[in-house]
Write a structure and sequence with these properties.
Strand content of chain B: under 5%
Order of helices and strands of chain B: HH
Structural class of chain B: mainly alpha
Shape of chain A: elongated
Helix content of chain B: over 70%
Structural class of chain A: alpha+beta
Shape of chain B: flat
Number of helices of chain A: 11
Number of strands of chain B: 0
Radius of gyration of chain B: 15 Å
Oligomer: heterodimer
Strand order of the largest sheet of chain A: 4-3-2-1-5-6-7-8
Strand content of chain A: 5-15%
Chain lengths: 383, 60
């Protein structure tokens, strides 16, 4: 039996962790709701020109030609990446205004992957109009404050997880004496909301913990990738130290690089080719991101270093455990891995979480001016 | 486990296990049946909530 002292401690933790994070969690739940359906909404709200009507299985056009088109259109930029989607017939060619520029300064061109026709100019981040989904995404991920915002929301997520765990320890004394799921409707409204808070909270406990914990991990993506770049990737690049990086003119063909990796890793899907650079990746190699083809392995990426002069695959980089955990935490946070029915269930679970948060806030606002310690004593004496 | 603890925790434990099964089955299973099982497993907690809200008040 949990002692009264331990209960008081859990009550204290539950009160303060909830009070600090509730407002932000409400923002996260409200903005997360449309994000569950972002694929469908993007398609609905997009004003991009349509793809050419071609039979399924039409092969991809030459990537080098798309890179050339991008270079001709923006000769003052340096090439950054080529992204080939596997569920839409599109190729995105990204460029930076100068080597080592911040990602948000990058611009991109969208091509039809089969015809190689240019479909759209994607302006640098700051010049892009703020769409509804972009607004939701920024409020959900960083509150328009970049990395500090992400770390702040990770902290709020941590408080939320603590609030859920401490709530679990308070469940038995507050709800355990009734039949499971009992909501006393003929007593005070406060009691009704307390029962509702307890029932919804305990039923959603596992889901809230999983989505909370995976949300924290997603917010730590930037630091985690930086750690990987500074440790594992640097170690692999050690033998190349001091060598001159290849000039833009002497780079091997992107199409040749793409094909070489496809030959080296049959059964894998190549999603993007990152040009040699001094940031994430290598100054001497193309970094080619590949993924598996099954529902699970399509979430796990295997980056391949390819010699930038010869287009020879050099090695498959091993992803460390913390990046594997991050990759697995994406679907478990987004709810996008089980078709439309899973998304609908995800959205309802999100709505119920809003009720848990709001009822918790109501319980605090309508609290009797009696400290929780007294209420616990009361429980004990009437029990 | 005492009788009281079993009475209090059987439903929460069953629902938590059901949720975890639903979350993992669609991720680890290769589509098909596993998706269906995931939809059912994750819908059941919602049905339990609906039942709690709709069931008549037990007379005191």
């Amino acid at each position: 039996m949990t002692s009264q002292r331990a209960l008081r401690r859990w009550a204290f933790i539950h009160k303060w962790t909830s009070l600090i994070c509730t407002v932000f969690l409400l923002i996260l739940c409200v903005t997360g709701l449309p994000l569950v359906f972002h694929e469908e909404l993007e398609e609905l709200l997009s004003d991009d020109p349509p793809y050419a009507e071609l039979p399924a299985g039409t092969p991809m056009a030459n990537l080098d030609r798309m890179v050339e088109a991008a270079r001709a259109r923006h000769p003052d930029h340096v090439m950054w990446y080529v992204f080939a989607d596997d569920d839409e017939p599109k190729v995105i060619v990204g460029m930076l205004p100068f080597a080592g520029a911040e990602p948000k300064l990058g611009r991109a061109l969208k091509f039809d992957s089969r015809t190689g026709a240019l479909l759209k100019e994607i302006e640098p981040f700051a010049q892009r109009p703020l769409t509804f989904l972009a607004l939701m995404l920024r409020l959900h991920t960083d509150l328009f404050a970049d990395l500090p915002g992400e770390l702040f929301l990770a902290g709020m997520g941590l408080l939320f997880v603590l609030a859920v765990i401490s709530g679990l320890f308070l469940y038995a004394p507050f709800a355990g004496r009734q039949r499971f799921g009992e909501i006393r409707r003929n007593r005070s409204p406060r009691l009704r909301w307390l029962d509702l808070h307890n029932v919804l909270g305990i039923v959603l406990l596992a889901w809230m913990l999983v989505v909370g914990a995976t949300g924290i991990l997603n917010e730590l993506a930037q630091p985690l990738f930086r750690i990987w770049q500074r440790t594992d990737v640097q170690a692999v690049l050690q033998p190349y130290r001091g060598q001159p990086a290849p000039e833009a003119a002497s780079l091997a063909s992107v199409q040749g690089t793409y094909d070489a990796v496809r030959r080296a890793l049959p059964g894998n899907v190549v999603t993007s080719v990152v040009f040699p650079n001094g940031g994430v990746g290598s100054p001497y190699h193309y970094l080619v991101w590949t993924k598996g083809a099954s529902p699970l392995t399509s979430r796990l990426f295997n980056p391949v270093l390819v010699d930038a002069r010869t287009a020879e695959p050099t090695m498959v980089l091993q992803m460390p455990w913390y990046l594997r955990a991050l990759e697995l935490s994406r679907p478990l946070h987004f709810g996008d891995y089980g078709g439309m029915p899973l998304k609908v269930v995800w959205a309802i679970l999100d709505l119920v979480t809003i009720v848990v948060l709001a009822s918790g806030l109501y319980l605090w606002l309508s609290r009797r001016r009696v400290p929780i310690e007294a209420r616990l004593r009361e429980l004990e004496t009437t029990g | 486990m005492s009788n009281g603890a079993w009475r209090i925790w059987r439903w929460p434990t069953a629902l938590a296990l059901l949720t975890l099964f639903g979350l993992l089955s669609a991720l680890l299973g290769e589509g098909g049946m596993w998706w269906g099982l995931s939809w059912i497993a994750l819908s059941l907690p919602l049905l339990v909530i609906a039942a709690c809200l709709l069931r008549p008040q037990r007379s005191p």
